[in-house]
Amino acid sequence: MPSQLITCAWILGFALEVSFLVCSLIRGAFLEYFFLNLYLILTLFADFVRQYVLHYYGFTSAEYRYVYFYSDLLLTLSLFIAVISLASRVFAELDFGKYVRWVAILLLLGTAGFSYAVIEQSADRLGTPFAYELSQNLYFVGLVLTYILWGAVLKLRETRTRVVQMVLALGVYFSAYAGSYAIINMAPQYEVAKYLVPILGCFLPVSWSVTIIRHNEESRLVPARLVAVPR
């Protein structure tokens, strides 16, 4: 991937992430959606650290490899927690919030154990192979949880516009990210496949910023606008 494209993608992503944080503060939604904001704050931090290591050590260095995969794992964990925070809000009225958190902890521990078992024979058990495996598995778990959460949104007739649109954005993001990795793995010879990941990185801050700007916490969707699901 040309260095110019990497730079442009980084600048655009940085601007969009900052825009969401600013909109969230101005609209008084920073604490309401703290874990979504935390994910983008950590994304900004990871971007800066990666750029620093890339500048001083180079793209093929062991230092950059470790920083990239472990920062990616950190971001995946924070996004997983963001999904759980939205699930807690959806199930709060049923008083299931604490059960959602316990299930999340068990899923996280189970995924970590499964990932370690996969790379157990590796000489570098806690090196980049473990970080990569755990990150990929958490993405898959996050994708499944997001679809389950969307089903719960429809079944429970959730009408809070911000919650609905943020869950929908996560579903689109996880699906597109999984699709982009599939394309990269199946057709690595096509240069366009390598452009998908940095472009997709701009989707969440854009969609969340639009949601925060256009709707307040009292905004509601008309139930008929959601897919009708019999109770």
Q: How is this structure best described in words?
A:
This protein is mostly helical and 231 residues long. Helix content is 76%, strand content 0%. It has one domain: Rhopdopsin 7-helix transmembrane proteins (Up-down Bundle). The chain contains 8 helices and no strands. Helix 1 packs antiparallel against helix 2 (34-57), helix 1 runs parallel beside helix 8 and helix 6 (161-186) packs antiparallel against helix 7. The model has no long low-confidence stretch (mean pLDDT 77).
- Could you spell the SSE succession in H and E letters? HHHHHHHH
Enumerate how many helices there are, as a single number: 8
Helix content: over 70%
Mean pLDDT: 77
Biggest sheet statistics: none
Low-confidence stretches: none
Keywords:
231 residues; mainly alpha; Rhopdopsin 7-helix transmembrane proteins; 8 helices; 76% helix; globular
Task: Summarize, please.
By secondary structure, this protein is mostly helical. It has helices spanning 3-26, 34-57, 62-90, 97-118, 128-155, 161-186, 191-200, 203-214.
SSE inventory with pairings:
Layout lengths: L2 H24 L7 H24 L4 H29 L6 H22 L9 H28 L5 H26 L4 H10 L2 H12 L17
Helix pairs in contact: 1-2, 1-8, 2-3, 3-4, 3-5, 3-6, 4-5, 5-6, 6-7, 6-8
